[in-house]
Design goal:
194 residues; mainly alpha; Hypothetical protein af1432; 64% helix; 0% strand
Length: 194
């Protein structure tokens, strides 16, 4: 795959700010992949494509979800911000011939996470969360943790995300709860007493 051609395509598809975000996520993902011994090439491809469908029309994404058996209909019951990852996981195969399931899954779940996340899933989920352009409460702790413990950093990101959505009285997609619970188990090894 010609990365420079892909970047030109992304630059046309995305807003300037979203394109710059994508490049920062890609740089962050490559660093995480190097630190935690994952394929840097896979991390780069997944990161570049993670927001590929971010600005597709809602109607087009809705139709794709409704008509494709690989995508859960449940997505349509939740905020459309969750749609672009799953849709992109299909589009990259159609347009670029990318069939690597690990890359496609990392793109699919980059917003919500999931139970039993692979290392690549964690890297893309975390890179999107901690890229240098982001700034919100709790981020410094996640960034510091990401230097030494990928799973714990993902746990903190998932915890912050679920808490934020609940505080805003927003619904939480089931995969986000599953990600939080599974990461909690991995970090704490079972029941945690407070």
């Amino acid at each position: 795959m010609d990365i420079e051609t892909l970047k030109l395509d992304l630059e046309e598809r995305l807003t300037k700010g979203r394109y710059e975000h994508t490049l920062r996520v890609t740089d962050t993902a490559i660093k995480l992949a190097e630190t935690f011994r994952e394929s840097e090439e896979n991390a780069k491809i997944a990161a570049l494509f993670h927001d590929y469908c971010k600005y597709d029309s809602l109607e087009e994404m809705k139709q794709t979800i409704a008509s494709n058996s690989k995508l859960p209909d449940l997505l349509l019951s939740f905020h459309h911000e969750l749609w672009h990852g799953p849709v992109a996981s299909l589009r990259i195969e159609e347009k670029y011939g990318i069939t690597n399931q690990e890359i496609k899954d990392a793109i699919f779940f980059h917003t919500t996470g999931r139970s039993n996340m692979t290392k690549l899933d964690k890297i893309i989920f975390l890179a999107d969360y901690i890229e240098p352009g982001r700034d919100f409460p709790g981020l410094d702790e996640v960034r510091d943790t990401a230097k030494i413990d990928l799973t714990k950093a993902c746990y903190l990101a998932a915890k912050n995300t679920v808490r934020y959505l609940m505080e805003k009285n927003r619904t939480v997609y089931p995969d986000s709860f599953h990600a939080y619970n599974d990461l909690n188990q991995q970090v704490f090894g079972g029941m945690k007493d407070e």
